[in-house]
Amino acid sequence: MHDVPKTTTSAPGLRERKKQATRNAISEAAVRLAAEHGVENVTVEAISEAAGVSPRTFFNYFSSHDDAFVMINDEIGERIRESVRAAPAGLTPLDAVREAFVAELDGFEDRQELWALQSKVLQRSPHLIQRGLNAHVADERALAVTLAEWLDATRPGTERPGEYGIYPRLLAAVSHTAMRIAFEHCCADPEENVLTDAFQEAFVHLAHGLQRPTE
Fold first, then answer.
1. Higher per-residue confidence, 157 vs 86
2. Residue 52's closest CA among 74, 70, 36, 29?
């Protein structure tokens, strides 16, 4: 088997981390205001004031008012893709993507309340659902591209690259679905359920071909 090429992507510098922190602060302010007052009653000026930035700065990070409600922690997707790129060749594709997601679950409790608020905001604002779905699909497709590249980098022999049919798209889609289901399962009873455990359980079912569960 071929070794996985070492990634040349370096960790974000201080400037980039500050930009991401500002972006996240704006999104968080937008979601919290919308959860309290409704999206239609929240202005760019109000979001900017709550985040401690100017309206001009707001538009440096978001092209429209509505984008701020659906873009929380969008850097997570890139970190997951970086983990997949660095995954050892000996892993199964399912394990490679599972471990990439699990690495992002550390500290989830710190974000759970905000993600739950965002979910409620989207549910109350149908016009945002399509925007959120578009962002989700874009992230899923980017993961599928990364998985196809990892499959090429770790495949044995000299076969022509990229001949996987729908497999990378399917793997990316079921991984995202497993995360969503695990998240919803935990939000339904946060005192009893742990996201990491629920997500791992979902992948056990996937690894067994979704056979009927046994006791």
1. 86
2. 29
